[in-house]
Structures are given as C-alpha cells and as structure tokens.
Design a protein that fits this description.
7 strands
Length: about 150
C-alpha cells in the first residue's frame, strides 16, 4: 500500500470510564488547559449531537517531536462508549513517520495503562478498518507490515 502525503491518519481511543480526566490529560499534550465549565459545555453538546469538535489546527507534543495541525473530536459509538479521535495528515509526519508513530504508540499505551483504556488504534482513516491499522492496543497492524517492506 502506498500512502499519499494527503492521506488522513487517525488515532482513536475508546473510553468507557473516565472521559473527563482522559481528555484533560490528553489536551495537556496539546498545551490546552480546559476549565471545568468548558469541559461541561463540550460534554453537554456531545450528549445532544453525538459528536463534538474539541479543536483543530492543534499541535500534539510527543517527546521531542510535534505533530502539527491535528484536530480532536469526541464521538459516541453504538455501545455508548466515547471515542476520542485525533486526526492529522500524513505529510505532517512523513519525514520520520516511523519515529512519530512509535511515539504515538507509546503515548497511547501510557494513557491506556493510566485510565484503563481497553481499545485504541491508529492508522489511515478509517482506522477501525483492520487493513488500515498501523498499531492497536494488541500490537502492530497490517499497515505496519506493509510500510516495513
């Protein structure tokens, strides 16, 4: 599979416990500090519409790297779990994509351990498609194998 510079990548965290604290910690990595009333506003909008944009054009800090121009969405899935989606364009990590994706994987595992997140995945959008996954909470996906060639 050939990835184009314009392809959209996404990291999805499936949250069924403590959305508020996960979101607060996640947003610190984007240098965003939400006040309690802002968080309540986002959650109220989410209950009404099923999805809520938290921000776009944001920069995610990962160790000594930064992924630019990310957007963050919160959605509700059929099981009523929350899905936090971080989207970015491949060209923003293309130069060192393996290093960026490793940092993103470590970041995801750290959040998962801290907040008992049982499911997450990252890859080409739609990353819930098993063929598009670079990594999951279970390890590397099919896209990792194709890019490693």
């Amino acid at each position: 599979m050939k990835i184009r510079q314009t392809d959209l990548m996404e990291l999805v965290l499936q949250i069924n416990t403590d959305l508020t604290n996960v979101l607060k910690e996640l947003l610190i990595n984007f240098s965003i500090n939400l006040k309690t009333n802002e968080m309540q506003g986002y959650l109220s909008s989410l209950k009404k519409s099923g999805s809520q944009l938290i921000g776009e054009g944001l920069n995610l800090k990962l160790q000594d790297k930064q992924i630019q121009n990310c957007s963050i969405w919160i959605r509700r899935d059929i099981q009523k779990d929350y899905l936090i989606e971080i989207n970015f364009v491949f060209k923003d990590i293309e130069e060192d994509y393996k290093e960026y994706l490793e940092y993103l994987k470590e970041f995801s595992f750290d959040l998962a351990r801290k907040y008992s997140i049982n499911k997450f995945y990252c890859g080409l959008e739609p990353a819930d498609d098993i063929d598009n996954q670079y990594f999951t909470n279970n390890g590397y996906g099919l896209l990792f194998n194709e890019l490693a060639i």
